[in-house]
Amino acid sequence: MNLKPFYEEFKTTLLIFGVIAWVIFLIIPMPGIIIDLCISASLAFSMIVLLTSSTIDSWDKLRTFPMILLMSTIFRIAFNIATTRKIISGGNTGTVIESAGHLIVQDEIIIGLVMFIILLIVQFIVANGASRFGEVSARFMLDALPGKQMSIDNELNQGAIDDQTAKKQKRRLQMQVDFYGSLDGAGKYIKGDVFASIAMIVVNLIVGLIVGMVELDLPFAEAANRFTLLTVGDGVVNLISALMITVSGAIVMAKVEEDNEDGEAKSNSVIQRILQELIPNSRNLYIAGSVLIVLGITGLPFFQLAVPGALLIFAGYMMQRNKKAEEENKANEELRKRKTEQTTSKEVKVKRSVEPVVLEVGYKLAPYFMADSTDVFGNKKESIHDKTDLMRQIFANKLGIKIPPIKIRDNVSLHPSTKYVIKVKESAVASGVIKKDKILAIPTPLVISEIEGEKTKDPIFGQEAYWINENQLDDAADKGYDVWSPITIIATHLHQIMEKNLYQFISLQQVADMVQEVGEEHPILKDKMDKIDDLYLLQKVIVSLLKEKVSIKDLPTIIESFIEAYNQTKDIDTIVLFVRQRISRQICENYINNDGKLYLISVKDEEELVVNSHNGVNVLSMNYDWQVKFLERLKKEKDNARTLKIEPVIVTQRPELRPAISRMMENFDTDTPVISIYELPSNVKNKVIASI
Fold it and tell me: According to its UniProt record, which protein family does this protein belong to (predicted)?
């Protein structure tokens, strides 16, 4: 039998029946059996809410909680009105209320009233605290909203997240604000419920006593006993239900959401997190148990103190044993993984590929690569793994290239032991030495005075720098120095090396995958490329673009222009020239200065420069002295331009001269961009500031 349609219909009509029942409770007197059932349902519902709020790990697992608070309060007030009507009318209030009254009062009216008042005070304290929690949470959530939104926008601009993730985070943030705002409002209903309960209790006692003596002709003692019993019973069953809902609200409002390494809420319930933080190790249990046993020896009841003390010591022993077993299992698992990675003498395998990028570190740098290590700046440290993942995402968003994962491994043979080596395809391309527990202070033009420290050269740019102690961090920053942590140094160096060697990661297989991806949205381009069947030449075009840090994000345009040029020539430089002209706006956009202009350095006497072509590749055939003088004049003009806070690029009149000069710059490790006059976009203002 399929009950799903019935269930869906039941969910739809449940709210309607609830509203109708609420109105009926306010108007029509209810029989005792209905009141008993409603009280039982209220207690069960309150218990479910309390258990749920205690076990959820994040606010968004109970988004309807403000509505739950509101509806439970409104329906409980309706129950109170119904029971009050039955009490003061002398009718049958049901067995639940009368039984609860007998349980609390037990023929002692004064004791019953005192117990009831104590429960009422507890309810008021919890409700008042929950209401205050709601006010503070809502206010601080609203105050933090602009900063959190800006943080999401910054991550999006830096390429750390994509548009879809940013929208998801903003939507969740807005839902969180709405949740705590609604919770603040619902908290006011909880306080109001307490005052309403007090008012109804007073009415039940006074009016019930009058009704019993006047209308029912009962003696004072009997009337007082009967109506006090019913009032206390009614108050207790309602207070227990209200107290569970109020405690649930306090738990949800007091919950502090903790993030894991991925920025998502940790999957820990309230009880789990309390135990993890209150009892972090077995030592606390040993001490607490020993103190209880000592107190039992000093004259206090021994059995009542020794048994809990022994249980605490036993729990501490079990915790210590389990922790030791977990550490051993973890160590064995790590050892097993290392053994599987090692080459055995029984089986010899030849590795036919190399790791694209490897970062090798000395053994003393290992703490900096642990996920739970601390940062020298005193804050929660971002691991090198986080930074490399962010770096790969930035390259993907900025240049349109997928960087392979960066492998990090220790190398005990590195000397000194704080050295690191960056390898590209198993070849060492850069290295540096870090001072453990030190910070690198790099002078800037804003330095006002020198700082005490060990002189050195920064491993990235070779500039003068100082190794300083952690406690000199604020002093160095105040004096105008840039301060870098060891992780920042390595990550920045890695970023620089990756940017210079992006083209090495473009394999023929990756080019084929790119064409396949483009073909999913542009099937015509895929068909044309299949007819050409020359992925090797397309690979050379893409490599040429990446060597000069030109983005290949607009891959459909690049492939389309490649196909068009391929039908006319097979010369690589001619094809690259054609492709660059098609994406010229994108190329020059990266070189536009803050004032919106493109500043150029032209080349003198271009017609006198000799350019030879070898297999379609243009090379500048000028002697070494001419090349050195050219670069010296270029450096001088760039320094002059930087004093004016502008970054110029080289421009050539002859198209074939552009790649030739660019290759010369590459040979001398100079990163000044070179464009041709045919790549200048018409909508961008440009100005020639020098000629060399």
Answer: Belongs to the FHIPEP (flagella/HR/invasion proteins export pore) family.
In angstroms, how far is the first alpha carbon of the chain from the final one? 88
> Helix, strand, or coil here: 218?
coil
Tokens of 682: 């018409």
CA 388 – CA 396 distance, rounded (Å): 12
> How far apart are the C-alpha atoms of 109 and 90, rounded to whole Å?
19
Whether the Cβ atoms of residue 75 and residue 198 lie closer than 8 Å to each other: no
CATH class of 357-502: alpha beta
Instruction: Return the H-helix or E-strand segment holding 589.
Output: helix 584-589
Domain 506-582 sits in CATH at 1.10.8.540
Taking the C-alpha atoms of residue 384 and residue 390, their distance in angstroms, rounded to an integer, is: 10
> How many Å apart are CA 24 and CA 9, to the nearest integer?
23
Which among 536, 537, 512, 539 has a CA at the least distance from the CA of 526?
512
Q: What angle do CA 463, 466, 469 make, to 5 degrees?
A: 150
Residue type, 11: K
Residue the block writes with tokens 């331009």:
641
Q: Which residues contact 273 (CB under 8 A, 6 or more apart)?
A: 258
Q: Count how many residues are written for the chain.
A: 692
Report which secondary-structure segment, H or E, holds 689. Answer: strand 685-691
Each residue's pLDDT tens digit, 534-593: 889 999 999 999 999 899 999 999 999 999 999 888 888 899 999 999 999 889 988 998
Position 194: which residue type? Answer: V
pTM, two decimals, is: 0.50
Enumerate the domain spans of the chain: 34-120+188-256+265-270, 286-322, 357-502, 506-582, 592-692
| Cα–Cα distance, 170 to 145 (Å, whole number) | 10
3-state secondary structure 17-53: HHHHHHHHHHHCCCCHHHHHHHHHHHHHHHHHHHHHH
**CATH 3.50.50.60 describes domain 592-692:** no
C-alpha to C-alpha distances, 609 to 371, 581, 617, 626, nearest whole angstrom: 56, 23, 16, 10
- Per CATH, 357-502 and 506-582 having the same topology is answered no
> Which tens digit of pLDDT belongs to each residue from 538-547?
999 999 999 9
DSSP letter, residue 351: -
CB 418 within 8 A of CB 430: no
Q: How many CB atoms lie within 10 A of CB 481?
A: 26
